[in-house]
Amino acid sequence: MRQIFLDTETTGLDWRGGGDRVVEIGCVEMVDRRLTGRTYHVYLNPEREVGDSERIHGLSNEFLADKPLYKAIAEEFEEFVADAELIIHNANFDTGFLNMEQERIGRQKITVLCPQVMDTVKVAKEMFPGKKASLDALCDRYGINNSHRTLHGALLDAELLAEVYLAMTRGQESLTMGLDDAPGAAFGEGLALNIERRPLRVIRASEAELVDHARVLQEIAKKAKCLWLPPEPEASA
After folding, report:
1. Is residue 200 a part of any domain in this protein?
2. Long-range contacts of 39-45 (CB under 8 A, 24+ apart)
3. Regarding beta strands 34-43 and 85-88, do their DSSP bridges make them parallel or antiparallel, or are they unpaired?
4. CATH number of the domain bearing residue 95
């Protein structure tokens, strides 16, 4: 299974008619739950001012001025993502922008080239109802180091999302590993899943706690039969 973790940075929030454009694309490839090391990363000249979005991604008009236009990279970008499952945090935002950029130059929508799209925001909200579902919040929840994320960056965020995804779907990973270890085995035919479990921590009662416990049981026994006390030995005849 080939998956692409994808993120974009843009000049704003409105792709429908506000004139906002994509300024950065970052992609990370994973095959069969293993990162391949292949990435796709490009900065783009949006043909407009970046405005207030610079404080989010740190990309200035001067930096982007000599970068390629979207139409110059569209074909190579399509080749990298085509037929893969896209995994995106807040997918409607990124696919909306990419579909707009594709349509502006008369090319197929990204969601046509890649009909399978997973939105990890939706997945996180289903897994953790009422909890924050931002990428930073998920990194904190799963203990993923994101201290180097001072600004939003498409490639960095795609890399972090890949780590978050593996953590979110770790149960599936165990199943995959079990199947790989026993090729051709079917469920119910001796297939053992090697699931690592944390050792249980045993906390034993202290002497003082045992004394208090015995005292409480005796007080209960004064009022009613106490099932937790051993039965008294029967008197001999």
Report:
1. no
2. 39/155, 39/158, 40/76, 40/77, 40/80, 40/81, 41/154, 41/155, 42/67, 42/68, 42/73, 42/77, 43/67, 44/68, 44/69, 44/70, 44/73, 45/69
3. unpaired
4. 3.30.420.10
In this prediction the pTM is: 0.71
The DSSP H or E segment spanning 34 is strand 34-43
Q: What is the pLDDT of residues 10-27, one digit of tens each?
A: 999 999 988 999 999 999
Q: Which residue has the tokens 């909200």?
A: 125
Q: How many domains does the chain have?
A: 1
Name the residue range of residue 104's domain. Answer: 2-181
Q: Which residues of 62-78 are buried (b: 16+ CB within 10 A; e: fewer)?
A: eebeebeebeebbeebe
152 belongs to the catalytic site: yes
Token pair for 40: 């796709």
Of the residues 57, 89, 152, 213, only one is catalytic, namely 152
Res. 59 pLDDT band, cuts 50 70 90: very high
The span from the CA of 101 to the CA of 94, in Å, is: 11
Number of Cβ atoms within 10 Å of the Cβ of 125: 14
